[in-house]
Amino acid sequence: MAGFHEVQFPTDISWGSEGGPGFKTIINELPSGQEERVALWSGGRMQFNVAYGVRRTSQLATLQTFYRARQGAAYGFRYKDWSDFTSNSTDPSYGSAKGTEDQVIGAGDGSTTTFQLRKTYTSGGESQIRNIFKPVTGTVEVWVNGAAQTEGVDFTVNTETGIVTFSSAPSGGANITASFEFDVPVRFDASADSVLSVSADAFDEGSIRDIGLVEILDPTGGVQSTHPHGGSTVREFTGDITVSSATYLHYLTATNTGYNVDLAETTLDLPEGRPFIMVVNAGSNTFTLRDSAGATISALASGQSARVSAVRNNGGTKVLVTY
Asked: In sequence order, which residues have a C-beta less than 8 Å from that of residue 232 and are 6 or more positions away?
């Protein structure tokens, strides 16, 4: 996956680290003293400080090597959150082991074969669903209507995306459950990207100033990709073409009018929120930007550009918009 390395942050350092989920909320205090609160994030975002886990010079060396291999904040990686790394939601003990049929991940309809691993957090009648993108290899167990399924025979699991794929679609109304362990997809934060400040305090003792990690909310989306050459392409084309959000900025020149530029990713697979791709018409001929199904997003005349975002309309359907 572009922009992500499937390696785990050293667990002997993560064990002594601290962190947890956070949200982003706008709070407007009115003259009356009452408040208006606007939740900008529908789900929490994990943040960690790994400095507290560094105690020995050997750990400093390991951390520096790991940091260099990730090129600072350029590449994401796996992180084990010792306070929440299993599907178990009922055992309140710290870092509880996974149980049996911990989480409902979907219901069969007789045709769907793929299901996203997820974990549901419920309190006071309110629930929040967290998609699990980085399950740990060998830990995923799946049941259909209480019957255990065999990995490699009845289902497979993609440990890079958290997608469970059945060899045969579960029947309509079938209850699909799973238990698993998982990592959090993270990257080094902006301050750590600037400098990794370490100190050898005494013989075989080392320390490091604050070094933060932040969760990558959807590591499967193109917006998370790393663009080593500035994230742009310059291309002349002589017919319909397909472009991917793995590169953000596309300067395109059509040799004739009437050509189509289609997005490679389906709308459902694209991340919501900020723009994931920008297309610029660098030529003199108009072309049409379309989604992967061939529906028109925007017609771009010479010199025009379009930044594309995925949003939810009033009906809750994910759609693409440009600005």
From this structure: 247, 248, 249, 250, 251
Q: Are the beta carbons of 77 and 150 closer than 8 angstroms? A: no
Q: Quick one: pLDDT at residue 153?
A: 97
Closest CA to 194 of 42, 38, 320, 72: 72
Would you place residue 126 in the very low, low, confident or very high pLDDT band (cuts 50, 70, 90)?
confident
The pTM of the full predicted model, rounded to 2 decimals, is: 0.65
Higher pLDDT, 77 or 38: 77
User: DSSP secondary structure string, 69-110?
Assistant: HTTTTTSEEEE--TTS-BS--S--STTPPP-SS-EEEEE--S
CB burial of 204-224 (b: ≥16 within 10 Å; e: otherwise) equals: eebbbeebbbbbbbbbbbbbb
Strand-pair category, 198-202 with 134-135: unpaired
Which token pair is 80?
């084990």
Task: Report phi then psi at 53, rounded to 5.
Answer: -90, -5
Which residues, 6+ apart, have CB-to-CB distance to 231 below 8 Å?
225, 247, 248, 249
Per the structure block, which two tokens stand in for 118?
């997820």
User: In sequence order, what DSSP letters do the residues of 283-297 get, joined into one string?
Assistant: SSS-EEEE-TTS-EE
Residue 5, SS3? strand
